[in-house]
Every structure is written in structure tokens, then in C-alpha cells.
Amino acid sequence: MTSADETIRRGVDDLAVFDVDVTPCSSAPPLREARVAIVTTAGLRSDGGRSWAIGDQTFTVLDAADRSVSLAHASPNFDRSGFAADLNVVYPVDRLEELAAQDVIGSVAARHLSFMGAQTDHTMTTLRLDTGPAAAQLLRDDHVDVVVLTPV
Predict the structure, then answer these.
(1) Ramachandran region of residue 103, left (φ > 0), alpha (ψ -120 to 50) or beta?
(2) Residue 129: DSSP 8-state
(3) Which residues touch 151 (CB under 8 Å, ≥6 apart)?
(4) C-alpha closest to that of 37 among 147, 126, 125, 143
(5) Deepest in the core among 8, 93, 121, 135, taking most CB within 10 A?
């Protein structure tokens, strides 16, 4: 009997992956001065649990003060046990608040972002050309210096 994981791996193992020619880089201020945001691919929602559609490359804005997010990941193979035990496994907002209180980081951004990580379109055209730049602009507008990426 074939497991669901083996079935999915067979379906995606030979997919071409988009190759980024150049990776831009910039310098951040020292962490003690940096404003930090979270970007996760855990498929979190703050809109009452609406699930993600397969291939949805949009993002959800999460209010840093709101802990009532739901896990709406589209993949049936996604292990939800860590999230069920502790939100901070996929969305470490409490840990960031602790770091800010200890003056390890300058501040925590008021908004964080969640994407759906299980993507079937490996060219990521929408994400590269539309929602990715929109997400980056939102973070820039919030004066975010550093992003903690939780690739779930």
C-alpha cells in the first residue's frame, strides 16, 4: 500500500523549480534596533478559518496582537500537532514579544504575513510578480528591518 506522502512525492519529484538568477541582499540594523516581522508558510488565517485553495499564492495579514489565528493549510499531509500544542511552533509571535521585552530586538511589527506553503505551480509566477512584491511593500510600509521566516 502506498502512503499519501509517497503518492505526493511521485507527483512532484520531477517538477521544474524556478531558478532565481540574482538574490538581492541588504543590510539590516543591529537586532537591538531592528523591527521584526514573521512570514510563515503555515497557511494561517485570521478570518474565521477560511481554508486555502490549492495553488492560492495570496497571503493573509495577521495582526500581531491577535492570537486567534486558525490553521487552514490545504495539504492533508500537513502535520498539525505542533500548531495544536503551541502556536509559536509556526507563528513565534510570543517569542518575538519576549525578545523585544528583553531588548534583544528593537520591536515587533504590528502585522505579520502567512502564505500557503503547499504550492503546485512551481514557477511561482503569481508569487514572484504580484503577491510577493505586495507583501514586501507591506513590510516596508511597516518599517520592518528583519523577517523571521517559518517555512512550514
Answers:
(1) left
(2) I
(3) 40, 41, 117
(4) 147
(5) 93
Whether the Cβ atoms of residue 102 and residue 54 lie closer than 8 Å to each other: no
DSSP states of 40-87 as a string? E-B-EESSSSPPPPTT---EEEEETT----EE--S-TT---HHHHH-G
Q: 51: Cβ–Cβ under 8 A, 6 or more apart, which residues?
A: 45, 72, 74
pTM equals 0.82
- φ/ψ (deg, to 5) at 99: -65, -40
Summarised one tens digit per residue, pLDDT across range 95-144 is 999 999 999 999 999 999 999 877 776 667 887 888 999 999 999 999 99
Residue 55 has a CB neighbour count (10 Å cut-off) of: 12
Retrieve residue 122's grid coordinates. 512551481
Q: Which residue has the cell 508558510?
A: 41
Return the DSSP state at 116: B
In our burial notation (b when 16+ CB lie closer than 10 A, e otherwise), range 60-77 reads bebebeeeebebbbbeee
